[in-house]
Amino acid sequence: MLEEIHDLYQAYLKLQFGLTPVRIEGLDFNSVKELEDYATKLVESIWIRDNWYKPGEIASSGEYEIVLKCSALHLAGTLKDGLPTSVRAEMCDPTAPRGMCPLTNYNETALLWFAKLFFKECVVSGCR
After folding, report:
1. Which of 2, 29, 36, 68 is deepest in the core (most CB within 10 A)?
2. pLDDT in tens, 4-13
């Protein structure tokens, strides 16, 4: 799944420069929106841990976790002004102390791009 996110990020960069169509694993993408819509379907759930806020307010800081479908992979990191500022990849591991085992071999830029896909709407609309 980490490799797929990396491939999606590379396709995103190509689409930003107007190179279309971009093919990933047999799928053609002709726009950034099309690619982002596909990428958001890879997620099972998103969790945010922070302080209490009024509806519509944007959290100034906090932590998030993105659980990916069909995988024991989780992305987690910190939020600032409603957007991810860091990311780490973890795999579920029942033998680890927290049940999670950190991964070290990944493209942080690609994962941070992926994580931000799920929060940009909150910044624009206030998550109403």
Report:
1. 29
2. 999 999 999 9
